Amino acid sequence: xxxxxxxxxxxxxxxxxxxxxxxxxxxxxxxxxxxxxxxxxxxxxxxxxxxxxxxxxxxxxxxxxxxxxxxxxxxxxxxxxxxxxxxxxxxxxxxxxxxxxxxxxxxxxxxxxxxxxxxxxxxxxxxxxxxxxxxxxxxxxxxxxxxxxxxxxxxxxxxxxxxxxxxxxxxxxxxxxxxxxxxxxxxxxxxxxxxxxxxxxxxxxxxxxxxxxxxxxxxxxxxxxxxxxxxxxxxxxxxxxxxxxxxxxxxxxxxxxxxxxxxxxxxxxxxxxxxxxxxxxxxxxxxxxxxxxxxxxxxxxxxxxxxxxxxxxxxxxxxxxxxxxxxxxxxxxxxxxxxxxxxxxxxxxxxxxxxxxxxxxxxxxxxxxxxxxxxxxxxxxxxxxxxxxxxxxxxxxxxxxxxxxxxxxxxxxxxxxxxxxxxxxxxxxxxxxxxxxxxxxxxxxxxxxxxx
Amino acid sequence: xxxxxxxxxxxxxxxxxxxxxxxxxxxxxxxxxxxxxxxxxxxxxxxxxxxxxxxxxxxxxxxxxxxxxxxxxxxxxxxxxxxxxxxxxxxxxxxxxxxxxxxxxxxxxxxxxxxxxxxxxxxxxxxxxxxxxxxxxxxxxxxxxxxxxxxxxxxxxxxxxxxxxxxxxxxxxxxxxxxxxxxxxxxxxxxxxxxxxxxxxxxxxxxxxxxxxxxxxxxxxxxxxxxxxxxxxxxxxxxxxxxxxxxxxxxxxxxxxxxxxxxxxxxxxxxxxxxxxxxxxxxxxxxxxxxxxxxxxxxxxxxxxxxxxxxxxxxxxxxxxxxxxxxxxxxxxxxxxxxxxx
Lengths: 452, 342
Prior knowledge:
The structure holds two protein chains of two kinds. By secondary structure, chain A is mostly helical. Chain A has 14 helices and six strands. A two-stranded antiparallel sheet of chain A has the order 1-2. A two-stranded antiparallel sheet of chain A has the order 3-4. In chain A, a hairpin with a 4-residue loop joins strand 3 (269-276) and strand 4 (281-288). The longest helix of chain A is centred in the middle third of the chain and has 36 residues, at 214-249. Chain A is globular and about 65 Å long. By secondary structure, chain B is mainly alpha-helical. Chain B has helices spanning 7-35, 42-52, 56-73, 75-84, 86-105, 112-142, 162-186, 189-220, 226-230, 235-254, 257-279, 303-330, and strands spanning 282-284, 294-295. In chain B, helix 3 (56-73) crosses helix 4. Chain B is globular and about 55 Å long. At the A-B interface, helix 3, helix 4, strand 2 and helix 14 of A face helix 3, helix 4, helix 5 and helix 12 of B.
């Protein structure tokens, strides 16, 4: 394999692995704010202990997120140095802003969140939790802004030619608010809330099924369900807006997402299918006629540009993008259904008697994780063959000083280390789950009967 | 020395300040890591680990932000160095991962083999990170071969030579000394007394390395003192550095641990300032042809970006200082283990 495919594999693998963790931190973070907020309001020790348990889970995901995150920042330079030279003026400032505005905030207050229970008062502790949660979201904002600029570059001009060409900022705010930023940032953050909330639902449902830590589990599920209901419906909205944006700004990507080969009006929306890229047809498919055109323009007469309108060297791989996209949408719908089901039975007061639902909840943790991964595959593979859409090809972004042997070496080591890390993560998470929250259930107080 | 106070120069020194911040802060926790295996008792090891527990993560952010700032302000330096030092950077990344994981996981299980395994990982990773950082600095002093497209044209092994290894070892010694002093501040009783003894040993180790490195630099890399010949006032830095180092044993003897720590911080800052003035205005010296060196002008982003970044930095820095100071204030005093500790 050549250095290009190896570097792409390495980046894809390290970013996919990294992306298991930050969404969990962001999602658990927002729920910690709610839980500790309830503690501050009710003074009920139950909520403090509940927060403490989830803080331990949070700290675990956060640590791996940080360790694997540094890799990402360095990899732009190690494997994609020509790209770094090209985009540094623009992309670098978003990354530096992430460091100075988000990482310091997160890591500083994380110390208080995890180790500061006895060192500061409850209000200061709550403030720290809030800052960690905000910091983790700021971080998502800046990094997704940087990525969105690669998808829909704006606020820049190209200086120099050939090997010396590079993008320079002309308008910082146009760069930050490039056409896809807002839609993608909100889509990503809300996807992260789902990841964290469903982890909490999953662990709590396990306790319900095992008949342990009942009060803790019930209360956790209820808080998380509110988050998933809001976030999953919000995903429908942000996802729709993103897709409309893609149809305008990255038509080749949209064509790959829905396997549109010829320009057409009244374009159909596939529910599923298998794309044969050579014959340009979709097999085993079920499709809704006219709906794709309708969704992107609120009119079935809206014209969708097909892949054949692009030069062959400018087309992304179709089937990968198609499958990833459809899987993401299907999971998105399933998450809405699960959230509504949960809230429905909760309203009827029978949610914790629905054993089948609890079992689904236990496994539901995988769904947002898969959706987040395939969502990014859609976004990044759909952007190919460009590393910066329309400006720089992926094959042109490589490091010239790095050869295939070096990347083989690092790729193999990353694979081994990350497999080990993942096993450790699961092992320690399992230990924490088995151990459970500290004597939360021994505290008899209910809301309205403050202890201490 | 030609010195114009423009955006490029400001950014050279801002990157320098980030690097100094990183070295002072992560320096002591890498140093604590390097000394970790010398402590034998499990509780004492936990105290060592928890002395850096709440802060090591934030300290590492200085490296991340430094990397981001370098990417934004001097993309060519970022691109050339990171791709040129590929294998060394990968090793550094693996060590950063091992270290983070070791700190996080060590005390999660009670088994002896489990803790011993993570203790070794933590300590070796800490030493190697300090060493690799030093080797990188060494290579920036000696210069590396570059072509006209600003690309590194040497090999991994060309980065490792007696001089760069010497700078690497000196960095390990420096951080060990710094970490030992930090440990003295954060511990009590027996461990405290043990660490006081190690401060003296590590100072001797550091001074031997420091003198050797300085002499070697003066003999083989005289370009590093060019500016000091032209602007003798800069020599004050070298004197300050000596005084700061000499002050450490004095403060330790008087039992003023915090002042010893401040002296150690000052000596790190002065050392890096000497390095920065030595290479200025270059970032990466091309050893094959000085014309090809990457300096603060030919490696920089546009004036517009440097300006935007300066605004970002001016907004961000007061916040960063506020958090950093409050966190260290909240976690001041001797380490006490509790159920949330590592």
